[in-house]
Amino acid sequence: MCTENGEIIWGIIEKTVGASQGGLVRVIFREKGPEGACALFSGLQKVVNYWLFPNGFSSGIGDTIGDAKTMAFITQTIASHKAEVAAIRERATIDEHKAAPGMTIRESFESQVERQLNLAHDTS
């Protein structure tokens, strides 16, 4: 993208516009200061609003509910990780749980349980 005196000469503003060191937002802030960056965001918001007006969409609670296949996958994933947590707890109860290097048995137990819960969250 090429701009000159605040006007886009050629190019397209895309999602990486502010994600890099030489991104548009940083360049404008450096060259035009906070007022210039504020004007950029105001202008971009107007463009987005004008686009959303005729092309808008809505989402309701029904859009957030998964279909039967998705719900079955989530339920199965959570159940398998709960079973793994139960197995970890059982090993700790009968003193078969081993401490991980650099951790106490309690820290190791908590780490393994937390890992399973995070995996359940991330994969479901």
TrEMBL record:
Coiled-coil regions, chain positions: none
Top-level EC class: transferase
Biological-process GO terms, alphabetical: DNA-templated transcription
GO MF, one annotated term: DNA binding
Domain RNA polymerase Rpb1 intervals: 3-64
EC numbers, comma separated: 2.7.7.6
Keyword NADP included in the entry's annotation: no
Lineage top rank: taxon: Eukaryota
GO cellular component, as recorded: RNA polymerase II, core complex
Protein name: DNA-directed RNA polymerase
Organism: Pleurotus eryngii (Boletus of the steppes)
